[in-house]
Design brief:
370 residues; 3 domains; mainly alpha; two-stranded parallel sheet; Serine Threonine Protein Phosphatase 5, Tetratricopeptide repeat
Length: 370
């Protein structure tokens, strides 16, 4: 963990040094400087930080343009971004209300406007989008990327996810998987996307594949609601297999992480179907079932290790809000009294108002996707 963060810091220092050198070459003459920045962009096109340098040079070139040109370009960019976001929300609305053809037309039009051909990975650049800092940290830990990661934004993976869901509803499961795979390329450890992908195998009655993929979800489940969904999915798998005691165990495990109506309803229906009252299983029975079918009954050890190592990393640098963020990942999964005490201690060090800033989202929410 420390090695990965130190490597990222080294790359940041290299990027800063290159950009300082480029900025030193600016003359103050707009036409000359824009041409100069274009040359620098070409010069560093094959550099491992080429994507970030190109983006920074584009911003500098924009700043060299007259104010009216800058304002016009920013206005166009913001309008395009907002229009795409609005159309994706409309597509999601149509999909949820059964208007699948209208939704599909909208989302395919959005994909053309975004132009996915611009976002092809290379030896030096990976295009990804992460919903939150822990998703990115976990991606780096699992995949250990050597190329520079460039933020693609939420719209393209969201468009693919909506289209995949539409195709899934239309029963075209093969095409749905192909489309969801495109979204997973940009968000490979997104829990919801991976769960949606697994669902296509359940709908195809390939329950063995569905079971394997559901067990794999625990390796990327870092929120209580994600753990709960994974256990619910296992519960439904065992139910289909008529392994009712095993299903009961999984639904109860789901409730331990998130007391959802889905899990409660599933338990009620399970009891009604069998004509018996299932009791909350003992820890011994849970351990027995989990060992027999080889699924975890605790959060993934690597996820907890990553959360705690990250918290220590930022605490050593007195970056308390970042420390709290990672400690809360651990606490959400474990409910540890020790972790809660550490959170309380650090919260006491924050100035007034810092807690509100900590809890404010850094990125646009993806709630519309779910």
């Amino acid at each position: 963990m420390d090695q990965d963060m130190n490597q990222n810091m080294d790359q940041n220092e290299e990027f800063d040094a290159i950009m300082r050198e480029i900025i030193d070459g600016l003359t103050g003459n707009p036409l000359r400087d824009i041409a100069y920045l274009r040359r620098k962009t070409r010069e560093y096109s094959n550099h491992k930080l080429g994507g970030a340098i190109s983006s920074a040079c584009s911003q500098l070139a924009l700043s060299c343009a007259p104010k009216e040109v800058r304002d016009m370009m920013r206005s166009r960019s913001e309008k395009r971004f907002n229009d795409i976001g609005t159309d994706l929300k409309k597509a999601h609305f149509f999909m949820c209300h059964g208007e699948l053809s209208e939704a599909l037309d909208l989302v395919e039009d959005v994909e053309k406007r975004i132009d996915p051909s611009k976002y092809q990975d290379s030896e030096f650049t990976e295009y990804r989008w992460f919903s939150d800092p822990f998703e990115e940290s976990l991606y780096r830990r699992i995949y250990k990327p050597t190329a520079e990661i460039t933020d693609i934004g939420m719209h393209l993976p969201w468009a693919y996810r909506i289209r995949g869901s539409i195709l899934q509803k239309q029963g075209d499961l093969e095409e749905a998987r192909e489309t969801l795979n495109k979204a997973l390329h940009y968000k490979p450890i997104d829990f919801g996307l991976n769960a949606d992908y697994a669902d296509t195998f359940r709908e195809e009655s390939d329950f063995d594949a569905y079971f394997r993929m559901t067990v794999d979800l625990f390796k990327i489940a870092y929120l209580p609601e994600q753990m709960a969904r994974a256990y619910r999915n296992l519960g439904f798998y065992f139910w289909v297999k008529e392994l009712y005691d095993e299903a009961n165990v999984c639904f109860w495990l789901s409730l331990r992480y998130d007391a959802t109506e889905e899990a409660q309803s599933a338990l009620f229906e399970l009891e009604h179907e069998n004509g018996v009252a299932f009791e909350e299983p003992s820890d011994e029975r849970i351990a027995e079932i989990a060992a027999r079918y080889e699924f975890p009954i605790e959060p993934d050890a690597d996820i907890l290790d990553l959360a705690n190592r990250s918290a220590r990393f930022f605490l050593e640098r007195r970056q308390y809000e970042e420390t709290l963020y990672f400690l809360r990942i651990d606490f959400g999964l474990t409910g540890s009294d020790e972790t809660k005490a550490r959170i309380d201690e650090i919260e006491a060090k924050l100035p007034d108002g810092a807690e509100e800033r900590e809890n404010a989202p850094d990125r646009e929410e993806e709630e519309e996707e779910e």
